[in-house]
Amino acid sequence: MSHLLSAAGLRVTFPGRRGAPAARAVDGVDLDIGAGEIVALVGESGCGKTTLARTLLGLVTPTAGRVTFAGEPLAYKAAALKAYRKRVQLVLQDPSGSLNPRHTVYDAVAEGLRIHGYAGDEREAVAGALARAGLRPPERFFLRYPHELSGGQRQRVVIAGALVLGPELIVADEPVASLDASVRGEILALLLRLRDELGLSALVVTHDLGLAWNIADRVAVMYLGRIVETGPVETVLTSPQHPYTRALLSVLPESPLPPVVLRGEPPDPARIPGGCRFHARCQVLASGEAAAVADRCRGEELPVLGGGAVAQVACHWSAGARPAEVTAAW
């Protein structure tokens, strides 16, 4: 599979206040997204996944590393970023906050066309985007306002606004988190249909591994600024190798794993611990099961995982000391 978007050695730091250490929000990430591939970026709040997504969109300039799209490095000049954002679109979590309450559905979807100086038939383009997003007949929605729509319809309008420019990749940040459970499946099915019909690629940012299971081809699990496990979704979610991934999976209702309650809060990204960055909260290390590699966990840095499709894990225990059994498939 050819890579549509790639990040290599990506780092994003934010200066601390009053001489405090800089916060390492993204601390060495390699990530590839193939043409027509859906990748789920999963992790707790504060792990850096939204900062990583914003960096891939060109909204944040990386401190180090590079982003390439279709083989070309991303340039951080206004004209280059404007052209790039026509090809890579953002779908935000809260459709109510994404839509101007004073704009009709037509104007909300047409906004991108007007920003980019679209020279074709605007009405036809807006109608086509609304229809692809599942709002049919589209003309029935042109003059409606956001408050006249259901939550699912508003999210479809946001998706239509992203589709109207014909992007090759969308970045969806918690795309169903604010929706009722009955509507979430419809929006996920829509994203899958758009991938199949348009060849659209997607990076779906979420805290929910259950969502990743339903929509993604590949999953990347992020903790404290770095990807700690990645691979095909079936591989990672049926046989999780990293204790953090196992903890995230254990709280899902359908999980075969015993529930794991992680101790404490994630460390401050300005004071990332040495060794494995998860070791202070690791349930395997705390139980003594990882005693053979305990010193390495606390003191030996783990390498940055590659961004490709091969299953990989950044964990001393999984690399050598873990027993051979695997988790039962769901």
Labels describing this entry:
seven-stranded mixed β-sheet; Rossmann fold; 330 residues; ATP hydrolysis activity; 13 helices; single chain; ABC_transporter-like_CS; disordered C terminus; alpha/beta; Peptide ABC transporter ATP-binding protein; nucleotide-binding
List the helices and strands and how they pair.
Blueprint (H helix, E strand, L loop, with lengths): L2 E12 L8 E12 L3 E5 L6 H8 L7 E6 L2 E2 L4 H10 E4 L3 H4 L6 H11 L6 H11 L18 H13 L5 E5 L7 H18 L2 E6 L2 H7 L2 E6 L2 E7 H6 L4 H8 L32 H5 L6 H6 L12 E2 L2 H6 L9
Parallel strand pairs: 3-8, 3-9, 6-7, 7-8
Antiparallel strand pairs: 1-2, 1-4, 4-5, 9-10, 10-11
GO molecular function: ATP binding; ATP hydrolysis activity
Protein name: Peptide ABC transporter ATP-binding protein
Pfam families: ABC_tran, oligo_HPY
Overall description:
By secondary structure, the chain is α/β, with parallel strands linked by helices. The chain is globular, with a radius of gyration of 21 Å. It has 2 domains: 3-15 and 23-220, Rossmann fold (3-Layer(aba) Sandwich), CATH 3.40.50.300; 240-321, no CATH class. Helix 4 packs across helix 5 (122-132). A hairpin with a 2-residue loop joins strand 4 and strand 5 (72-73). It is built from 13 helices and 11 strands. Residues 10-249 form the ABC transporter domain. InterPro entries: AAA+_ATPase (IPR003593), ABC_transp_ATP-bind (IPR050319), ABC_transporter-like_ATP-bd (IPR003439), ABC_transporter-like_CS (IPR017871), Oligopep_ABC_C (IPR013563), P-loop_NTPase (IPR027417). Pfam families: ABC_tran, oligo_HPY. This is Peptide ABC transporter ATP-binding protein.
